[in-house]
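User: My collaborator sent over this chain with a note saying "see what the structure looks like." That's all I know about it. Can you take a look?
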Amino acid sequence: MSEIVFTPYPHDEMVAGIHALAAAMEAEGWRPALLVGVGRGGLAPGVYLSHRMNLPLVSIDHSTRIAPFGAELIAVLAARTRAGEQLLFVEDINDSGRTIGEIRGALAAEGAIDANIRFAVLIDNTLSAQRVDYRARTIDRSLNKDWFIFPWEAMAPREKLAQEAMEVPERIA
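Assistant: Without extra context I'll predict from the sequence alone. Here is the result:
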């Protein structure tokens, strides 16, 4: 196994990314009624984007897998899309696509209107199984095997970061 390359994602790059995401939506004239920060990695960028765009933010619990939290909110969000509201889900990275795919599947199972749902990320892997609508930066995992450390992750022990990186080893090997 090769050594994991931990690459800091600087705060100023994150701020520039938030501005780029907002500018892309503004250029299209698309404005969601609600932002949804995906826990855990999408919460900090969600808060920044909420302030930048002056939009309300809710968080959806995905990282803990405590079903009632996520399932109940998914049902509420799906109903809002059926009522015509546009929602933007915010995540830090679209890497394997697993998280975004699970959220899309759960929303579809609740009858959400797909045309009213979009996703925004700071980093988008072109090889991901899922597509996103807005991205601040693009990587190709066949070329870039770095494990990005976002500012909010900098407090985590290296062992925990390595464990998370190894959840899908082909991303970094």
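A starting point for your reply to your collaborator: Strands lie at 6-8, 34-39, 57-61, 87-94, 117-125, 134-139, 147-149.
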